[in-house]
Amino acid sequence: MIKRFEQKDKQNSKQTNATYAALISSVDDSVGKIRETLKRLKLSDNTIIVFTSDNGGLPKVTDNSPYRDGKGSAYEGGVRVPFIIYWPKANFNQSTQSTPIQSVDIYPSLIEMTGITSQSSTIDGVSVAPLLKSNHTLPTRDLFWHYPHYHRVGGARPYSAILSGDYRLIHFYEDSRDELYNLAKDPSESQDLSNSEIEIKNSLKKKLDAWLQSTSAQLPVN
Length: 222
Prior knowledge:
- The structure is a single chain.
- This protein is about 25% helix and about 15% strand.
- By secondary structure, the protein is of the alpha+beta class.
- It has a domain at about 100-140.
- β5 and β6 form a beta hairpin.
């Protein structure tokens, strides 16, 4: 399979790693086999499929543009990933939604979609089932990230972040530094607004600190 992609025309393409392309293709093939099996067993109409990723692509082998950096990064290229839901009972099949969601939303979503009762008294996230139904939206909310350690992949370093509306604030623990970006105007996170949008920066940092405290998040230790 690698040879197949080595032979493809690489002109005008930022994706040039044949091994990586072969891995992605094998995942696509495997998902196809699963769907064909479900169809053959007549289970497709009673099956929910969630397809997503834990991080963005590794910069050395792929390109996440227009988003900045990739796997292991605090920036959009590291945290913005595909999120595909196949739910036969949805009214909006084959639609695209721009509402930001997170992996913590999977559990409450499946609870609502399947109509079962959760045994947990505390549930992180919200159900995204309304997004798959006509004329429904999710309540406005802030999204949070917490990564309190280092990792060799992508040069990852400890950070916490909050997405609130169009703004995303990232707090780096190494030098206790904040960066602020307006993703609507600057999806590539090329213009740090932390020194010009002081009021917004302080407001988001206060929200982020309150969330870290409410969740008893473990902070990095020097």
